[in-house]
Each structure stands twice: as structure tokens, then as C-alpha cells.
Amino acid sequence: MLISRVAVFCGSKAGANNLYAQHAAALGRGLAEQAIELVYGGGKTGLMGALANAVMEYGGKVIGVIPEILLAWESQHDGITELRVVGDMHVRKKMIYELCDAAIVLPGGNGTLDELFEMLTWNTLNIHNKKIILLNTAGYYDHLVQHIITMTEGGFLYENWQERLLVCADPEEAISLLVSGTFQNRP
């Protein structure tokens, strides 16, 4: 499957580790260099801003989707290719999902986890069949991955989660997975 547009979910804060922002910027550069358009939450701060700024800096295209309620909260990014303002968070997520061919999840907070698990749930329900890459910068998601394994071992998942969610350690690996189109899990 050719990936032309990817959704990226990440924090509107930079987080406590400088590597989070470095990986966000490196991912943005990689997307631009591969001519893969970015669809994201429309903010200019934190990892969201680092990501969008890098895509724009390297000549890529960025579509931001932000709900009215977050315009002041996340300080919408006015320097991107296109900013779509929508009525609420549900419309935002649905639009982002519809616009993308795949998704990458970087470190973030409650909103980022909400977006990750909604996409995984929609995959399970066959609402869409989009691959999701979890960028596990500095082991940020190690405990979450372990919990998903626990959910599997506990008999609560309907399918092998590794068919939908690919875990990688750096932006280069994430870009490689997008460009190859194979989304093969490593042993």
C-alpha cells in the first residue's frame, strides 16, 4: 500500500526528555523528504509544533485539524499548509482518521493515548484497516506495550495486536516502515 498521508499523534507539550522533540523533528524531516503529507492535531507547541515545523522547513505539506475549544489551549499553528477548524474532538479524530493512510504515535499524554486506542479499536471493528506505528522513543511506551501483552495473555484481545500496531525505537525505522509499505513485524 502506498502511503501518501500519515496521521501523527503526539503531545502538545515537549515532555521531560529532549529526545522526544528531537525524534518529532527527525520524523517531520523524514516525512517531508519522502513526500508523505502530515495530518496532525494542528498545534504549534510541544512535540506537535516540533513535528509540523520540521515538515514545513523541509518543504513538506501539513494539514492540521483542531477543534474550536483548543484554539487558545494549543495555540493553533498558522504556519502550516492547511488548518481545518472543526466543532469538537470527535469530529477532529474522525477527520484525521479519514485523511490518513497510516498513523504514527509519538510520546504524549491522555489525548495521545485516546487517539491510539480509538484507532486500534476501529481496526478491530473493521471500521478501517490502517496500520499504526508506535514510536517508542527512549522506551516511553515500554510499560504500555507490556500492558497490551498482559491484555493478550488475559484473553481480552480479539486478535494479535502486532498485526495492527508496530513498535519501533527511532524515526528512521518508522519512515522505513512507511516507505516499504510492508509493515512486517520483526521477530
Q: Secondary-structure element order, as H and E? A: EHEHEEHEHEHEH
**What are the segments in which pLDDT stays under 50 over at least 5 consecutive residues?**
none
Largest sheet: 7 strands, parallel
Tell me roughly what share of residues is in helical segments: 40-55%
Might you state the CATH topology name?
Answer: Rossmann fold
If you compute it from the alpha carbons, what radius of gyration comes out, rounded to the nearest whole angstrom? 15 Å
Short description:
41% of the residues lie in helices and 17% in strands. The protein has 187 residues and is of the alpha/beta class.
Structural commentary:
The chain is an alpha/beta fold and 187 residues long. It has one domain (5-180): Rossmann fold, CATH 3.40.50.450. The protein is built from 6 helices and 7 strands. It has helices at residues 18-33, 46-57, 89-99, 110-124, 142-153, 171-180; strands at residues 5-9, 37-40, 62-67, 82-86, 102-105, 132-135, 165-168. Strands 4-3-2-1-5-6-7 form a 7-stranded parallel beta sheet, sandwiched between helices. Strand 5, helix 4 (110-124) and strand 6 (132-135) form a beta-alpha-beta unit. The chain is globular. The chain starts with a strand and ends in a 7-residue tail after the last helix. 42% of the residues are buried.
Give me some keywords for this one.
187 residues; alpha/beta; Rossmann fold; 7-stranded parallel sheet; 6 helices
List the helices and strands and how they pair.
Blueprint: E1 5-9, H1 18-33, E2 37-40, H2 46-57, E3 62-67, E4 82-86, H3 89-99, E5 102-105, H4 110-124, E6 132-135, H5 142-153, E7 165-168, H6 171-180
Parallel strand pairs: 1-2, 1-5, 2-3, 3-4, 5-6, 6-7
Helix pairs in contact: 1-2, 1-6
